[in-house]
User: Which sequence fits this backbone?
């Protein structure tokens, strides 16, 4: 059974810092991995999708990496801003299945 | 229409009542998914449709839950005889399916259910 873990559960940093969020998964037979952002009481916004054959994806100040063999992904946020405050979720799509398996998320607070 | 929409956004009901939620996917997307998210947790998969066919259901989807996608467009999720444990955010997502190399899922704003 695929399990996804995100560490830390919560993170608070001052504005302007670069930071890394971690995601690990137990079964390396994945099709892709997505990072999402969720604001309180809202739905999920897709940030980046990495195919299993890819090593990283970049969008603006965000960079996501994937090491399938070790079952890890990281989301790097450069020059953090208070507007980046949200919960960040990673999810994997298992090969041969359509559902996404989510981690519990990292609640990020950027302090002005 | 540029995204997935869900209605209602909030629903408060009494235990034992039936509730129905609606999801309208992105218009060209043929795959539609339902997830449930409780406070402080990541979303959990409930079921998925390809066009009008319901192809997968989670064990979380008890016999009190039923989902339909009658014409391969919008979908409804009904919960009968609601229980307090059903209180959660119900999220809908859609994707292009085989037409897309990536099959990225796009989520709606969710329906927050509170069972009193």
Assistant:
């Amino acid at each position: 059974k695929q399990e996804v873990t995100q560490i830390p559960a919560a993170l608070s940093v001052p504005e302007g810092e670069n930071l890394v969020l971690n995601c690990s998964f137990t079964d390396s037979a994945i099709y892709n991995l997505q990072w999402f952002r969720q604001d309180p009481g809202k739905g999920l916004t897709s940030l980046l999708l990495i195919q299993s054959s890819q090593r990283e994806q970049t969008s603006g100040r965000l960079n996501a990496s994937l090491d399938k063999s070790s079952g890890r992904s990281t989301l790097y946020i450069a020059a953090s801003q208070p507007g980046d405050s949200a919960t960040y979720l990673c999810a994997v799509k298992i090969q041969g299945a359509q559902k996404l398996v989510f981690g519990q998320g990292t609640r990020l607070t950027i302090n002005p | 229409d540029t995204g997935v929409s869900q209605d209602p956004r909030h629903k408060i009901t009494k235990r034992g009542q039936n509730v129905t939620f609606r999801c309208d996917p992105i218009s060209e997307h043929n795959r539609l998914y339902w997830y449930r998210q409780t406070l402080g947790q990541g979303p959990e998969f409930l079921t998925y449709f390809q066009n009008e066919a319901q192809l997968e259901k989670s064990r979380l989807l008890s016999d009190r839950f039923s989902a339909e996608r009658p014409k391969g467009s919008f979908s409804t999720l009904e919960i009968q005889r609601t229980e307090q444990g059903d209180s959660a955010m119900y999220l809908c997502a859609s994707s292009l399916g085989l037409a897309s190399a990536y099959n990225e899922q796009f989520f709606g704003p969710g329906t927050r259910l509170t069972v009193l």
Remarks:
- The radius of gyration of chain A is 13 Å.
- The mean pLDDT of chain A is 94.
- The longest strand of chain A covers residues 30-38.
